[in-house]
């Protein structure tokens, strides 16, 4: 079975697709894992990116499949078909995800990752999502959040550090800054990985600990 990671969030434009691409680059180029990214968003930002880059089949990168559906059975069938070929599968989701689909994705995921923009409005709406997940599955779940697009020298950064979690949500220690490099890094090429390296190392450590727990 591959490791499943779903990137979700209640808001549009928080960095879900950027995170999916960077994370897939991390596993594929950084850790040498057979990696698939799945695009479930009707906007198809993840899939279109590859088209925009006038993709050359010979370029080495993680694989990508598009499955835009509101039906969890359809997604399940697709994932079942592909999963034996991969060690890591990362699912990118739209800003407004149907309850049936989000429930299914939480169920199959080894880790759910939620990017937070550092604004009260964004935090509030993501916490509604966390409530919805906790109400169905309880508070003991691998749901992790991180702050994305942190402005350099912003006063509220220290305050954000005090927010460590809520119900099933645990905040990752590392934050990702708002940087042109990261916005440009929205690409299949492994450039500027250092910006997100620490966050993903933290996440990979959590996954390793989880796997060890299951084995013992
Ligand atoms: N840390 C960052 N620093 C600078 N720009 C960023 C960062 N993270 C994401 N962005 C930029 O923010 C914009 C929105 O990001 P992205 O498309 O990944 O969000 P999304 O949550 O997938 O949006 P949607 O809900 O529309 O699918 C993009 O232009 C992306 O390049
Ligand atoms: Mg997106």
Note down, in words, how this protein is organized.
The protein has 216 residues and is of the alpha/beta class. It has one domain: Rossmann fold (3-Layer(aba) Sandwich), CATH 3.40.50.300. Helices cover 44% and strands 16% of the residues. It has helices at residues 16-30, 45-52, 72-82, 99-108, 120-137, 157-162, 180-184, 194-215; strands spanning 3-7, 35-39, 63-66, 88-92, 111-116, 143-147, 165-166, 169-171. The chain has an eight-stranded mixed sheet, with helices on both faces. Helix 5 (120-137) links the parallel strand 5 (111-116) and strand 6 (143-147). The longest helix has 22 residues, at 194-215. The radius of gyration is 16 Å and the shape is globular. Residues 187-191 have low confidence and may be disordered. The chain binds adenosine-5'-triphosphate (ATP) and magnesium ion (MG). Adenosine-5'-triphosphate binds at residues 12-18, 41, 43, 45, 94-95, 148-149, 176, 178-179, 182-183, 186.
Hey, roughly how much beta strand do the residues contain? 15-25%
Spans where pLDDT lies below 50 across 5 or more residues: 187-191
Instruction: Give the oligomeric state.
Output: single chain
Give the helices and strands as they follow along the chain: EHEHEHEHEHEHEEHH
Number of structurally distinct domains: 1
Number of strands: 8
CATH class: Alpha Beta
User: What's the N-to-C terminus distance?
Assistant: 17 Å
* C-alpha geometry: globular
């Amino acid at each position: 079975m591959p490791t499943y990671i779903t990137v979700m969030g209640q808001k549009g434009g928080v960095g879900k697709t950027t995170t999916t691409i960077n994370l897939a680059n991390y596993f594929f180029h950084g850790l040498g894992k057979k990696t698939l990214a799945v695009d479930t968003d009707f906007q198809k930002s993840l899939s279109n990116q590859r088209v925009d880059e006038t993709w050359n089949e010979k370029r080495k990168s993680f694989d990508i499949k598009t499955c835009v559906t509101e039906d969890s059975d359809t997604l399940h069938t697709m994932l079942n078909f592909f999963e034996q070929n991969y060690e890591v599968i990362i699912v990118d989701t739209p800003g407004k995800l149907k309850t049936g689909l989000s429930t299914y994705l939480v169920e199959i995921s080894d880790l759910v990752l939620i990017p937070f923009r550092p604004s009260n409005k964004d935090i509030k709406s993501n916490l509604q999502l966390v409530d919805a997940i906790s109400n169905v599955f309880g508070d003991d779940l691998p749901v992790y959040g991180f702050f994305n697009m942190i402005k350099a020298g912003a006063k509220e950064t220290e305050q954000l550090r005090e927010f460590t979690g809520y119900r099933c949500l645990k905040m990752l220690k590392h934050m990702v800054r708002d940087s042109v490099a990261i916005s440009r890094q929205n690409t299949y090429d492994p450039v500027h990985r250092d910006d997100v390296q620490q966050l993903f190392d933290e996440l990979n450590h959590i996954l390793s600990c989880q796997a060890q727990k299951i084995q013992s």
